[in-house]
Amino acid sequence: MDILLAIAIMALGAVVLGALLGFASVKFKVKGDPLIEKIEAILPQTQCGQCGYPGCKPYAEAIANGDEINKCPPGGIEGVQRLADLLGREVKPLDAEEKPKQIAIIDENTCIGCTLCIQACPVDAIVGAAKQMHTIVAQQCTGCELCLPPCPVECISMQVIGENIDNWKWKYPVVEIKSEMRKAAAMKAAA
Amino acid sequence: MLMNLFKFKGGVKPPTNKTQSVNLPIAQAPLPSRLVVPLHQSIGGMPQPVVEAGDKVLKGQLIGEADGWISAAVHAPTSGTVVEVAMHVQPHPSGLDALCVVIEPDGKDEWIPREPVDYKSLPPEEVRERLQQAGVVGLGGAVFPTHGKLTASKTVPMDELIINGAECEPFITCDDLLMRERAEEVVRGIGIFRDLLQPKKVLIGIEDNKPEAAAAMRLAVQALGESFAVVQVPTLYPAGGAKQLIRVLTGKEVPASKRSTDLGVQCFNVATAYTAWRAIAHGEPVVSRLVTVTGNVHEPRNYEVLIGTPMDELLKLAHPHPDTDGIIMGGPMMGFLVPDRQVPVVKATNCLIAHDDRLFPPKAPEMPCIRCGACAQACPHELQPFEMYWFSRAKNFGKTQEYNIFDCIECGCCSYVCPSRIPLVQYFRFAKSEIWAREREKNAADQAKLRFEFKQLREEREKAEKAEKLAKAAAAQAAKKAAEAVAAAAAAGESGAAPAADTAAAPAVATPTDAPTATVNPEKEAKRATIEAAMARAKAQREAVQPKNVDNLSPEQLKAAADIEARRIAAHLIEPQPADQTAPLDPNN
User: Fold this and answer.
1) Is ipTM beyond 0.95?
2) How far apart are CA B359 and CA B343, in angstroms?
3) Could you give the domains of chain A?
4) Residues B416-425 as b or e (16 or more Cβ within 10 Å = b)
5) Which residue in A163, A173, A180 is closest to B426 by CB distance?
6) Rounded alpha-carbon distances, angstroms, from residue B454 to A115, B173, B364, B460
7) Under an 8 A CB cutoff, do B361 and A187 touch?
8) In this structure, are residues B400 and B391 in contact, taking their beta carbons and an 8 Å threshold?
9) If you average pLDDT over every residue of chain B, what do you get?
10) pLDDT (0 to 100) of residue B554
11) Is A140 an interface residue toward B (CB < 8 Å)?
């Protein structure tokens, strides 16, 4: 009798806990693959396709499925490092040369208004209309270079974004220990 | 006036070094050889230049127009000629260039027509507008456009208006001298702020090492019949920090990521009040400011200096000692060595200190942190600098934010007390600018992602719309054809020309040319019929068109053309044309 009661209690417990777990798995279901989202958050979203995939999200999916992490030149070596940290993989040198940040500039005197670059721009950063001058909205341009090949008159050039007062950063404090030590010693001697 | 004062935690008491520069009254600095006026002199939007090289400008003429509400206009500091609008080195630790208007003075110092107004007769919006147009910004050093701070919050009642005359940083005495010599105008300026904000009380905080300034201000307040309280606060660096002064005078502590206006307090510098009064009551935009020139010089003194004056020319007035090896802009705690001695004085320049190794001995090398906690005791914001230091040093920026690095006002107390001489503030500045840069990048990436996804969505939608349209058109076409075919069948049935078949529909779609294959799909048949009809139409059109360039030719031209044709045929370039094809060449045709 006792053993039956024990079995019944255990069975009841199993049913209740099972129902709870089942409910939780429905209620707190994780939508999408969180890993892909995390990878995508690291990628620079230039949508340039230099990795060989049509956009950052497809590349993030490919990385999650085991592709190399060093195919994103706009992300730079820092991006590779962060991907390596996230995925527990080894840091590899970039597959292509790292370029400084740049934006596209349309030479508006040469532009014939063919709209080909507008169609090529992945982030709609080019404004213009057929047979009208086109121009690039600098704040939106990701520097992906996708507008360069379709231009029939080669009026688009890439311009490196230089350091200016607005984007200047304080440098990491570095003290030259050797020269400082010498100076301190000299001061002590003078005193 | 006796008043219950409060205390803020921490703070340091460095040697004030203020007595050197208060012995002489304010002097007017002479016109420099040229003025380099940076356009971006306030927080907020970058003013756009409205003059060009070669333009003649008068003193006080607008040269840079405010860009947006949080931005302040820039004016020509004297009359003269604009030499260029170009990039020049800025008084900024980066040593980078920014857009400046370079003016060569003509020596006349001729004002534009000034428009003094009685602000009491103007609506408040217009007073704010006038302050923006006059380029009035916070002259305590943060250069925030003043008009942007002069709108009272709708939700929180304005309790206190604090006027900051503490001037806590060593060496600097420009606010002290301003209050001593121009107290009346300062008090009148405070009156403008009071009328715009309608606070319950106005408190003027002055450190107790400036008794002359406090006395002068009290006299002026009495003379003008105002009810402002002049309060002497204990001398303790950084009592002049806005949040510290608010704490000392009102006991209110501004929490992290909140503004003082959320607590019903607003704070202005005395020099800001002075320039606001000059701007409104005299119509004079901000073209000059008081600058303390001190440090390693023979004659430390305060000068009224035109904005844009090269710093080395200003320093020469005070006769610097020959061993001066640099210029510090600002005080010794928060200032920085300017990258170039030629950089101009700007609205944020309150003090120039001639630097030499005797006044500022080179720091001995940085030693490891010994976790003594002295920095935490000195921090006026009750932060934990040692924690922020470790994480900044390790570039663990998320953790620095957890320790509220953005509440750090970079006052330098922690670096000042650090026994290991660690440049803590430099680490915090590095961490802050790195976090900002990442934030910018993150925002740009998010926006690019959003735009990319939207573009994809739009392309897909367009494709779907196109397909739908095509399908609709095809369906319409098919229906039309079917209707036509039915009509044709009916006609055919009447005449009895179509051979009788087992179904009525099949012969109905048959055209006379392919009646024997009448069993094929009626739709296909209809399509073929249209194609054939179109081809026939095109052929007819082609035949109808005749080249027009050979009409009405003279006999000589005809002959030349015939000769060319003959030569071509002879050279086997073209096949001899049949007679009817060359016929159009004949004008008589």
Assistant:
1) no
2) 22
3) 34-87 (1.10.15.40), 100-162 (3.30.70.20)
4) bbbebebbbb
5) A173
6) 19, 57, 57, 10
7) yes
8) yes
9) 88
10) 80
11) yes
